[in-house]
Amino acid sequence: MSLWMTRLSQPPGKRHTMVEKVTVTVDALQALLDQLKGRGYRVIGPTVRDQTIVYDEIDSLAELPRGWTDEQEGGHYRLVRREDDALFGFAVGPHSWKKFLHAPIVELWKVVRNGEDVSIVAESPPDQRFAFIGVRACELHAIAIQDRVLLGGQYPDSHYRARREGAFFVAINCGEAGGTCFCQSMNTGPAVESGYDISLTEIVTESGRSFVTEAGSEAGLQVLAALPRRPAMDEEIAQAKAVISRTAAAMGRQMRSDDLRELLERNLDHPRWDDVAKRCLTCGNCTMVCPTCFCTSVEDSSDLAGETASRSRRWDSCFTMDFSYIHGGSVRASARSRYRQWMTHKLAFWVDQFGTSGCVGCGRCITWCPVGIDITEEVRAIRDSGSTEG
Ligand code: SF4
Ligand code: SF4
What is the reported pTM? Predict the structure, then answer.
C-alpha cells in the first residue's frame, strides 16, 4: 500500500497511539521548527499578512499569529486581538494547504528554441519536502479527499504526488470554532484523529501555555523524541479533552449531512436554485478557497520572439462560463445551473465519484463569498420547504 493511503485514509475515529501523551512548552515548539528545518523540511505555518491569517514559510514562533483570533460570518472576516496570547487561537483563513500540494499554477513543460535545436524542459519537482504546522482536523480530511481524487485513480497526478510524498504534518486540535465552521456536522472535526505526524492541543497551565502532544507516525515519534518534553499529567490530558469539547459545542454552523445526496437529487428543479442565482455573482471565490475543489484548466503561451512556448496548468472554477464551454457555447450558461452544479457535486454526487462528501465543513466558502451565500442555509431552505421534486 502506498504512503498516502496508509497515512491519510484511515477511517475517522481510528487513532494512532504510538506514544504516550507528553507535554511540551512553547519554547519546545521553536525546537520543533528547528528540528524540522534541520531535517531538510520547508516549514510552512500560519502567519498574519494583509489583515488575514495565511499559510506561508516561517522560521520562528514569532511569526505565528500569537494573540490573534478571527471573527467570521457570511461574507465577513476580521482579525481581532484576543485577551490572551494563544498561538493557535483562531479558525481557518482564506488559504488552505492545497496552495502547496495542488499548486495554483504549475508549468507542465516548456519548449526552448536555441538556433536549430529545440529542447523540451519538464517542471522540476520541489527540492524540499514540506512540513506543515497547525493543520486542523477538517484540513487533514480535505487532504485525504484530494489524495483520493488526485492519486487514487487510474492516472495519478505526478505533480501532486511529488509535493505530497514525504510531507510532515503537525496538527492542532481546534481550540476556537469559527463563526462559519461546521466540521462537527460533517464528522471531520474538531478533534484530530488520523493522518498526522505530531498532534498538539494548546492548554493553559499554572506555568503558562503548553501543548499536550502525541506522535501519530514513526517520523513524528523521532522528531518528538528530540524535543524537551515530559509525560502529560492527568489534569493536562483532561484539559486537552475539554478544549475539544468546548470547540465542538461552539460551532458557528450546523448542517444535517446524513441524507444530503438523496435530498439534493430529489430537488434538482427546486425554486431555491433560482433564488440563490439572483444573489450569486459567479465569482468563483468559493471554489478558490475550498480545500477540496481540484479543477484545473490548461493554457499554452509563447513569447513574442518565438523562442519559448510553455504549457501551464492553473486552478479553474465551475463558476466560469469557459469551464463548461464546448463547441456552440457553455453547457452551464446560467448562474442557477453553475451554483447547482457546484453544490450538488460537493454534497451529493462527489459521493458517487469518490466515496465521500466533497465538503469538510471548514466554512471558507461562506466567509469568503462576497455576498455571504451560505451552503448550510441553502441546504436548510431546500430541506425546510419539504419539496421533493424530480
Ligand atoms: S456562491 Fe458566492 S463565492 Fe461562490 S460564486 Fe457565488 S458569489 Fe462567488
Ligand atoms: S464546500 Fe465550503 S465548507 Fe465545504 S469544504 Fe469547501 S469551502 Fe469548506
Answer: 0.93
